[in-house]
Description:
Layout: H1 6-19, E1 24-28, H2 31-42, E2 46-52, E3 59-64, E4 77-79, E5 88-89, E6 103-108, E7 111-114, H3 115-121, E8 125-131
Antiparallel strand pairs: 1-3, 2-3, 4-8, 5-8, 6-7, 6-8
Amino acid sequence: MTMTDPIADMLTRIRNASRAKRRKVDIPASNAKKAIASVLLRHKFIGDFKVIEDGPQGTIQIHLKYTSREESVIVGLKRVSTPGRRVYVGKDEIPRVRGGLGTAILSTSRGILAGRESEKEGVGGEVLCYVW
């Protein structure tokens, strides 16, 4: 069965695993998902991730991060652009998530970047999701 929105599937898997207090979650790999996981790692929303080459597609194993009170570091994930409704922003319109506590993840001409990184680079793009 083909999937129409693999990024939404990735976010849902992470959301469900964090609510179930899982330490890790496996996601079918793609270059876009690897880039999103890299942004989540750089901004310390996840502990670590690794790509397992098992077959033609491979798997991304994401290690979730929790506080000392066993609360998930990721409080929320929201998909913004969907296959039926794309949301684009210019370099001056990059959204702030939860007053700067979260981050927007954008697909830009320079790759998949966090909101602050794309501001620094001076590029806009498609808003993929919000993470806080």
